Amino acid sequence: MSRRHSRRSARGALAAVALLLTAGCASAPGAPASPDAADLRREASAPAAAQARAAGAGETGAAAGAFRRRVPALVFHRQAERDVCEAGEKDTFQHGRDTFRFRCTRMLLLYFGATGAVEDRIREADAAVTALVRERTGDAPRTDRPTQTPAAALRFYTPEGKGGPAPSLAYRWSAGGRGAQHAVTARVDWQDPLQDKAGFFLDAPGGAGGFCEESTGGPVPPRVIVGECRPVDQKTETARVRARHPYAFRLTLEDTYYELGWD
After folding, report:
1. Which of 69, 132, 174, 212 is the most buried (most CB within 10 A)?
2. Are strands 247-260 and 74-87 parallel, antiparallel or unpaired?
3. How do residues 168-227 score in pLDDT, each as one tens digit?
4. Torsion sign (Cα): 199, 125, 193, 255
């Protein structure tokens, strides 16, 4: 086979692969369509979504208030918030179908300054989240990852745990509100007072710059802001807290308050 013919064959093979990938990225025949931006805004303003939104705002607001009351050694500095609805992706070659066709989520970020032993602040934060969840649901919060429990976080500060992963605390629970069921998660992070070993997570959940952005579709499914969206430069905010306190804590509350499936 000549070298020129080999090059033509290689180009043909690459073109065939590109065609296969392009075809694979299209939605499967008969698959329900993801909402576009206009549909998304209509779904977000529907009575059921509006009712769930009001209940969700009450749930996250009450949880944030209960946490603040239970952590007297943490000095509150600022709260950032986001309330968005987004479309789920339909089936593609590269990414399977999302579990939701339409979903609305509210997120709160609360920043605190801290003093004293970090182990004491970890215990205090854990006790606060556990107490507020018991108060609101009657049950203890759940944790999916053993690396995000108080025991794992405290172990990080022992001689045996110095080489472990950066600690954080994670919780999840379900709360009802006026007929709506809310999947709530909480995460506690901190900037370590000793050489910042914990690597405090500075980027907003969802990616840098995406905390308050709307989307009309295109390379990513559309999403719309449907409530308060107060952005925060988390690096600047952490530096501001650290200028007044030895280290910083952050509580992230997230409530998926409304979701529709594909059927």
Report:
1. 132
2. unpaired
3. 899 999 876 444 567 899 999 887 766 554 455 445 554 445 677 888 877 777 888 888
4. positive
pLDDT tens digits, residue range 2-60? 444 444 443 443 333 232 222 223 344 444 566 777 888 898 999 999 988 988 888 89
140 Cβ neighbours under 8 A, 6+ residues apart: 130, 133, 134
The phi, psi pair for 104, rounded to 5°, reads -120, 135
User: In the β-sheet with 74-87, what is the strand arrangement from edge to edge?
Assistant: 169-177, 180-190, 247-260, 102-114, 74-87, 223-225
The alpha carbon dihedral of 207, 212, 218, 224 has a sign of positive
Query: How far apart are alpha carbons 206 and 190 in whole angstroms?
Result: 19
Q: Residues 136, 171: contact at Cβ < 8 Å? A: no
Burial label for 249, CB within 10 Å (0-12, 13-18, 19+), is buried
Q: How far apart are CA 206 and CA 213, in angstroms?
A: 10
- Reported as a pLDDT band with limits 50, 70 and 90, residue 113 is very high
